[in-house]
Design goal:
This protein has 442 residues and is mainly alpha-helical. It contains 15 helices and 4 strands. The strands form 2 sheets. Strands 1-2 form a two-stranded antiparallel ribbon. The longest helix is centred in the last third of the chain and has 36 residues.
Amino acid sequence: MTDADLVQASGNSSWMLISAALVLLMTPALALFYGGMSRQKSVLNMMMMSFGALGVVSVIYVFWGWSMSYGTQSLGGIVANPFEFFGLRNSIVDEAGNYLAGANDYPNVIDIGFQLTFAVISTALISGALAERVKFGTWLLFSGLWATFVYFPLAHMVWGGGLLGHTESGLSARLFGTTEEAGKTVAAITPIDFAGGTVVHISAGTAALVLAIIVGHRKTFLRQPHRPHNLPLVMLGAALLWFGWFGFNGGSAFAANGLAGLAWLNTTVATAAAMLGWLLIEKLRDGHPTSLGAASGVVAGLVAITPAAGNLTPVTSIILGAIGGGLACLGVGLKYRFRFDDSLDVVGVHLVAGLWGTVGVGLLASDTGWFTGGGLAGFKLFIIQILIALIAMVFSATLTTVIALVLKQVSGWRLDDEEENRGVDLVQHGETAYDNIGPDIR
């Protein structure tokens, strides 16, 4: 390698290590966001569910998560062989003890760490649908099973060379043909999921909907208000999520380059527009914009731009974000219409905004979207974006249903009525967030 190559590889390594740390921060930030949205007697449990997912998924990612996601031995394009790189063997150093190179010539171990953090936050997101009523042990079991049977296969299908990617054997290639690119045969119409619209948000949002239905609602759902107990904590969590998301989206360029800068800028303006879009809907519908709405709009914008951050201009990112914020604001009302207890609005924010971002990039992608000069190819891109979104939903819903029903029989999900009334913090963890909390605190 030349001196310039070494400098570039070093810069990429630094950026990716920072990005991995930023994404890891997102899970504790989610704990603050969800914790503030909860009632006083459940705030610790809500935060512990994020930390619990961080513990479980990090461990299993080392054993089989990386291998299932990015192994070379694909099983039907659905998932890779979990034993190929089990325990990260042959993944970090070669026989001579030299670090194996990954993308952009930086060490592969950095990519492993970066992808681990994605698996963690994707699983933790689901917990917001289950506030105040489930056993912590069952949640830990679910975290490991869901990551194994839903997240890792989806990561392989979209990013690891599987069925929903851009390879010659993928769905897009089968529908719309192939082309030659840098000496390789790839899909003529390349599906776009820059940083995780399908893999992260659609899959987690769908899982949240399924669990909310199977586990059932809180005893007081629709009978008494369930207001956030600490809105400053919610806003702090949203701020830290926004900060961490620069690693989530910017790091998905896998290099310290112009694409990372574009993703950074698009993430900023789309999120700002989504916050304004959410607040506008609140003002028109309810008469006043709220701090909870601002925080939720921020998260909705981050979700919407995730699949599109590297493929839009700043102007189209603003359009995508504003629409995403408005749709998510309307989407949180679905739980009242259809009477499913998505406690902290995972479905409204992550599923709705994730679907819009994944489909919207097919309309607005620079020069290739249906509305931005792509012509017939842009229409085909729009169609393939709809298909990968639907496949991700069906896949996540099916596997989540099986996992949830098995756990319902094996360990049980619900606290009993008395335990739920006393508060999940006291019952499951033997502690409370505030020393003035008793069993009757609402």
